[in-house]
Amino acid sequence: MTDLLSAPLLDTAPIAERLRTALPTDVEYASARLFDERSEHLRVRQNHLEPISNEFDTGVMISIWDGGGLGYAATADLSEAGLARAVDRARHWALVTAGHMVGGSNEGAAAIAPPPHHPTGTYNSPVEVSWDSMPLDDRLELLHQQSRLLGVDDRIVDWAAGLTRRSVDTVLVTAGKDGQCGEVQQRFEFVYPGMRATANEGTNTQTRTFGANAFCGQGGAEVLGRFGFGDAASRVADEALELLSAPNCPDGVMDILLAPDQMVLQIHESIGHPLELDRILGDERNYAGTSFVTPDMFGSFRYGSELLNVTFDPTVPGQLASYGFDDDGSPATKQHLIENGVLQRGLGGAVSQQRSGLDGVSNSRAASWNRPPIDRMANLNVEPGDSTVEELIASIDDGVYMHTNNSWSIDDSRNKFQFNCEYGQRIENGEIVGTVRNPGYRGISRNFWTNLTGVADANSFTVMGTPNCGKGELNQMIGTGHASPACKFSDIEVFGGES
Asked: Which of 19, 108, 364, 371 is positioned for an S-S bond with 32, CB 3.0–4.6 A?
């Protein structure tokens, strides 16, 4: 078979020069951000190869700050004339919005200043084994092997294994009437493996997946080995079958131990989204809601127990949302958002920091060339503690060890939530005594994290991600990184899905 992605990505050097030439130098600040993507989607379902999908997408976003206004214009026409038209449109919108920008507490009066820098630098995803070193036929055979291992029992009624690879080049060029200019070039390589098995017996249907798509990251073919993709199919199928005969998860207030692949969602929904500064400022209220977090909480609010340490860290090698610079050009640095349980700073890029007067991070990110950057969590991680998983299990007299999210519900201020998991293990008197199906738990974010009573050490710390976080109007789908060890929470309301 022909590998459509074997050719190199777009040659960015001549385009970067064209972008520099196109940017005006009579405005306060101007930027041009090139986004060039190629992706490949492979999937074998029930031992049959589905149509191979390849996507190609290239374009440029022009941004102009001038006179207190900000204008955007996107174009897929990379010719000199096409870029000139986009610059003219961005100039127009900067003029129209001057004096009408939305500020923080004094809406409508504050002008948004341009970013205070002209960034220069590069970033490349760390790649140990080039994806192209694995021929397309070999990738397909790997998926067929996993499919055969998933469909080993007549009770497995549906199963699939898939691989997605994305290669993205970005170039950010800046200029302005201060005479300075900047250029950032970044190359990203993403790999997203996945598999699932659905088992049925009578009215009971259970699905087990390969981490619910959380086992993804930056890199080449080595990402598959990093998460044990080639050895996972038999376990996934066995656990789906095991759940058919497992009892329903018990109801009651008890301890829970959340596996890293469930912590992904817990971090994402009840820490990540509530701390986004644009959400706190009200930008998302019509679409995805607001936040229970208010500006006065930063620096003093106890978000969790003293065991809770959460970092924003886009410098972790191989994590899904690692980068050298965000899409406004702010250099990526590691920052503590929550330290020893106390809320320190929010997830806000340069513009939101200016609007709110609060400290933020380098997280102004855009999903593609035709979207402006907004506040997005990148790599948001719970730092390891000093307990082993075995010690945490031994400390639980009555509880459930929950793995892999399969459904979630959270209110529009990201406070009250209810999550369900694929697979549960009942813990009694410090020992795992069996499997339970349909495990779920509910809580309130600002109380739930204060019930954090155990954090496992680095041996269970797993670097994962969420490939499909949606936010913004127009919508932007983007990947976020999350890493965590297993974590114990006490006195949590637990329930079974059949209760």
From this structure: 19
What does the alpha-carbon distance between residue 470 and residue 374 come to, in Å, rounded to a whole number?
A: 12
- Residue of 31, 96, 89 lying closest to 69 (CA atoms): 96
Residue tagged 């102004």 (tokens): 364
The DSSP H or E segment spanning 201 is strand 181-201
**What's the farthest any 2 CA atoms get from each other in the chain?**
72
Residue 405 CB partners (closer than 8 Å, separation 6+): 212, 261, 262, 264, 265, 419, 420, 421, 422
DSSP label of 132: G
Q: Is this model's pTM higher than 0.90 or not?
A: yes
> How far is it, in rounded angstroms, from Cα 135 to Cα 127?
16
How do residues 352-384 score in pLDDT, each as one tens digit?
998 899 999 999 999 999 999 999 999 999 999
How far apart, in whole angstroms, are the C-alpha atoms of residue 443 and residue 61? 41
Q: 12-22 and 80-97 are packed helices; what angle lies between their axes, rounded to 10 degrees? A: 50
Q: What is the DSSP string of 30-48?
A: EEEEEEEEEEEEEEEETTE
Burial classification of residue 203, based on how many CB atoms lie within 10 Å of its CB (0-12 exposed, 13-18 middle, 19 or more buried): exposed
